[in-house]
Structure formats: C-alpha cells, structure tokens
Amino acid sequence: MLLRFDNVSLAFGARPLLDHILLQVAAGDRVCIVGRNGEGKSSLLKLARGEAPPDEGIVWVKPGARLAYLVQDITALGDESVAEVVAGGLPEVGKALIDYFHLAQAMGSHPTTQQTQHLTQLQSILDANNGWQLEQRVNTVMTRLELDGEARFAELSGGWRRRALLARALVCDPEILLLDEPTNHLDIQAIEWLEQVLREFSGALLFVSHDRSFVNRLATRVIELDRGRLFSTDGNYETYLAKKAQLLVAEAQQAALFDKKLAQEEVWIRKGIEARRTRNEGRVRALYALREQHRQRRERVGRIELELQEGNESGKMVCEAEHISLSFGDRTLINDFSVRIMRGDRIGIVGPNGAGKSTLIKLLLGEITPDSGMLKQGSKLEVAYFDQQRDQLKLDESVMDNVVDSGDFVTVNGQPRHVTSYLRDFLFRPEQLKTPARALSGGERNRLLLARLFAKPANLLVMDEPTNDLDIDTLELLEEFVANFPGTLLLVSHDRTFLDNVVTELLVLDGSGRIQEFVGGYSDYARYREQRQANERAAATQKTSTPPTVQQTTAKKSPKLSYKDQRELDFLPKKLETLEAEQSTLQLTISDPQFYSRPQNEVQQALKRIAELTQEIEQTYARWSELDAMLAGT
After folding, report:
1. Bridge partner list, 497
2. What is the pLDDT at residue 556?
3. Is 398 exposed, middle or buried (0-12, 13-18, 19+ CB in 10 A)?
C-alpha cells in the first residue's frame, strides 16, 4: 500500500467536502476521481500531497515513497528554460544542478575566488547525492518526451508546457503520481500521447479528469466523489457508468420508501387527543429520528437545464467556400480549401493546437476575409457562437446583466421568464445574480456563456471548445442537448467522446494548411488513420527488407507488365468509379438530417461502410500509382 485515507473528513465552511472517507491506492493502480465541479476533487489531491491537513482522520503515505504532482496552472513558472523546469522536479539536487551550470557558464576564463568556492560547494552536493546520474535522468526524460531543454518555458504552447511539467513530475521516478485535469490545454494528438506514457507508468496513479475517453482508456478504478462520499468501481469508465445507473435506481427507490414511511408517521402523530394518549413513546422517538435523518439527507445536486430557442429555418446552403487560402506572415493556415455546408450538417473540426481551427470557424462565419478564393454565407442564418476565449462575456458586469440587456425578464421560446428562474436552470443561485462575471470560476463562466447564448433563437450552433472546465454530468447533458439540436452544427473539440456522439463529419487540419474531409466520428477517423499508418509501415518494411528478385530486376529493364497486372491496371478506373459512386450515395444519405432517427444498427452500418470505402479508395489509388510506375519503368 502506498497511499491511504482513514476516516478522513474535510469541510469548506458549513459544507462537508469529504465525509469520513476511506481510500487505498497501491502500486500499479490507476485511480480516477470524478464528480461535479466544487465537490472537492482537487482538495482530495491536496490532502494526498500533504499541502493541507484533514479536519478529521489520517492521510497516510508510505514512508520514503516518492510522490510527484502535475500542477494544473501551466502559467505558474517564470522565464526558465525547459531543462530548468524539468530539473526542478529534483528539489535539492535539481537546484544544485541548475546553479552549477549557470555558475560554470558565468565564470569565464578568470573566475573569482568566491565563484570558485561556490562551484566547489555545488560539486560536493552533486557528488554526495548522485547528482551526475540524476542529470542523465533529466536528459533521458526530456528525450523520451521529445522536449528541447534549451527552449524557454514561457514561449511554449499550452500543450508543450504541460508536457514539460509532466517531465518535471516524472524525473524523480515517483512511486505515486497525482494529476489534476492533465488533458487541459492538450489537443487530441497530445492526449493520445499522454495516455500511452501513463499506461507505461509502473507506479500508482491518482488523477482527476473529465475526459471520458481518457478515463476509459487509462483507469483501472473509477471513484465518484458525491456529497462527501466516495463510490468506487473497479474497471474503466464504461464499467463505472453501468454501476452508477444501478446505484441511482437503488437510491431513488430507497428515498421513495423513506419518504413514504415518514409521511405515514407524520399522519399518525397528528391524530386526535385519544390517539396521542395511547401512542407508543418508542414510535414517537423513532419519528423524531426520521425527521432528523431527513433533515441531514443531502439531496443530489440539481442538473443544469438546457433549452435553446429554435430559430427560423435557414437557407438550404449554410456556407460555401471554393479554393480559399489564408496566411499569417510566412505561415499558411488554410491552403486551397473548398467545402459546402448544408442545412442540418453536423461538422466537427479537429487538429493540433495552433493548426487554425478557430481561424477556420471565423472564416466560415465571415468574420475573416480569405487571402484568395470565394466564400459565401447562406441566407436567414441565426448564429449562436460559443467562443473558446469567452470574449462575449462582459466580465465587469453582473451575471444577470450578461443575460438581459435591461429589465428582469428574458424571452425563451416566445414566453417571458424571470432572469432568476432562467439562471437557476444553469445552476446559478439567486445571491450570485449580482456577482461580476470576473469573479466566476472557469466552469461557471462556461455556464453563463451558455445561458447568454441560449436566450436567443438560433439555427446555426457554433461551439469552440465548449467542454473546457465542465464536469462530466454537465458535459453529458450539453452533449445530449447538442445531439438533439435541429439546426446546423460546427464544433471544435478535443473531447473524442463528445465528437463521436454529436457529429457526422470531420474537417481534419494537419497544421500545414491542408484540410481533409472525413465522414464519420472521431473513432471512425482514428481507426482509418491507424490502418493507413499500419499499411505505410508494412509497405516501408517490405521495401527495405525484401531484396530484388530476378523478376523485379527484369521489370526494371522492361516496362512491360505481366498479363495479370495489366488486367488489374485496366480494371482500376472502373473500380474507382464504382467505389466513389457508392461513397457519394452514402454521403448524401448521411447528410440527411433525418438519417440519425433511423435504427441504431442501420446508422452504425452506414458509418462503418463509408469509412471502409474511404480506405478502399485510397488503397486503390495507391495501387494504380504503383502499377503506373511499373509500366513506366520507374
């Protein structure tokens, strides 16, 4: 056992965050803590790393165990080099290493006596603490995580900063690793890389995350923190969901039985004088106990209520782009891109951080003019735009003033609603209405932006990273709402599960300006990409490992194909025509807004088939190129 919570309690004011919890973490465990925002997940990690004592109980860490923590605030460090940031994970020795190399560089050819003495002291500290071996570990970890030690931490993107901070946590070879929302600021490629690194980690992992795909692939145990209690499930996120559904049903049944019994006892105690004279005093005491139990019972926190006003139907064509390009300085973000977005399309936009996803949305909405090409918006568009930076929020104004321009009422689907009632649907308490938006947490700001957007009618929903800072319950409710939105959807997200559940087509940016269209969700695209990479690896291996045969050597001398190859080459154009015709027919079927109301197995079969067609067409073109090259004698 490496980490143990024994009967631990912690309160924030009068509200209990942890209520006599028990938790054990052993070597090899990968334990994920999930729960609503504000339930105490980060506080639990703070207790685990000894930053604060519990109100009651004991937090025990194995004596001498190395514990590391991935900080959530990626802006916490100053203008240090990446090597300095990583070496900082070795508290005393790391500082001595940094000071030694800084001093050695500053001394030059004529060191002072004080500099020489200080250098000797640092060298003694490093010799006594295996400092030179630890220097090699710093270099090894940076190499493994593909980090440039000389780069300045402050100049890195959010994803690369998080990678450097992970190296800082791993460099001490921890037995216990604590992670708080490790996928924040990471694009999908970086998240998948992080999954692989952590799956290979041999120590105990305790982490908080709202990324369901990440939790599902990584966790060996999922623990929900709810109303101060822990509910543990062995297995991944899917296993947890199944058990959670059973627990909710049992909890509702138990609460209903309790309330029924309480109501019966209340009727009995209120009988007339004669009944009260003959009443059983034990039964009276039991009733008082029931009342106290009911008072102390903490009901499950309410869930956010989402309802977007449906706007008038837009024109059939929402947006059309032909050969558009856009550059900033010497960098091309969009290169010769064409697309037609029709009413009812549900499009996800994915790619590395900095690839231009947000820029593409602004182009399609007409907020930015392309350098070249034609761009045209459709008619009757009513846009609800959730921007990643939440620029639409007026931070110095109150929560209420961000939703209503004047007065106390907002019109929802033609009906007036008091702003207090409306904002209660988004889990804002009445006392928060006058709070400046600047004082809200990240999750609360997200909910306020949703409330602001959904107070207006829309037929085009544009969402740029809407899942940041949302807990899983709210995220799943938002997902359900977006999936049922009847208009057109443009979604930028790094949440793979969210993408799979709400989009039918992807625009994939690779960072070079190229944008690939792909029909299906992210899992479909990931399977296609993995298969393509496997085929490329197999082809490269075969090319480098197989010596040329006599037949191959002869083929180089003569451009003639074998009879079989020539027949195949003659047939390929017809095959491609057939495949592409089937692909076009399927794409038309899938683009129909009513398609997803069909039986689930029919929908899945169609999506699977179109993914197969995309792969088969690519392989057929590759084979055509291969035979054509053989014919040309190259």
Report:
1. none
2. 42
3. middle
Q: Which alpha helices (DSSP H) does 154-236 contain, by range?
A: 158-170, 188-199, 212-218
Helices (H) and strands (E) in the chain, counts: 20, 20
Query: At how many degrees (to 10) do helices 131-144 and 113-128 cross?
Result: 80
Asked whether residue 622 is assigned to any structural domain, the reply reads yes
In a domain, 501, yes or no: yes
Residue 85 placed within a domain: yes
Whether residue 103 is contained in a domain is answered as yes
Q: Tell me how far CA of residue 25 lies from CA of 20, 74, 205, 530, in angstroms.
A: 17, 27, 8, 34
Q: Residues 378, 502: one domain? A: yes
Assign 17 to helix, strand or coil: strand
CA dist., res. 459 & res. 489, Å (int): 9
Angle of helix 472-484 versus helix 442-454 axis, rounded to 10: 20
The verdict on 365 and 454 lying in the same domain is yes
Q: Where would I find the beta strands (DSSP E) of 181-316?
A: 204-208, 221-226, 229-234
What confidence category does residue 560 fall into, taking pLDDT thresholds of 50, 70 and 90? Answer: low
Last residue of a domain, one of 173, 198, 213: 173
Same domain, 570 and 624: yes
Range of the domain at 608: 547-632
Phi, psi dihedral angles at 4 (to 5 degrees) = -145, 135
CB 174, CB 69: distance < 8 Å: no
Q: Report the chain's terminal Cα–Cα distance, integer Å.
A: 64
Task: Say yes or no: 455 and 342 in one domain.
Answer: yes
Contact residues for 275 (Cβ-Cβ < 8 A; gap 6+): 268
Residue 622: its H or E element: helix 600-632
Instruction: Using the structure block, give the residue that is written with the tokens 């997902």.
Output: 479
Which residues are bridge partners to 320 per DSSP? 340, 376
Domain end, chosen from 265, 296, 327, is at 296
* Count of positions (residues) in the chain: 634
**Total Cβ atoms within 10 A of residue 393:** 19
Count up the domains in the chain and report the number.
Answer: 4
pLDDT digits (tens, 9 = 90+) for 454-511: 777 888 999 988 887 788 888 887 888 888 888 899 999 999 999 998 998 999 998 8
pTM of the model: 0.70
**CA R_g for the chain:** 31
CA 73, CA 42: separation in Å to the nearest integer? 12
One domain for residues 436 and 560: no
Say what the pLDDT of residue 76 is. 55
Residues 6+ apart with CB under 8 A from 390: 445, 446, 449
Q: How far apart are CA 372 and CA 270, in angstroms?
A: 82
Same-domain pairing of 493 and 618? no
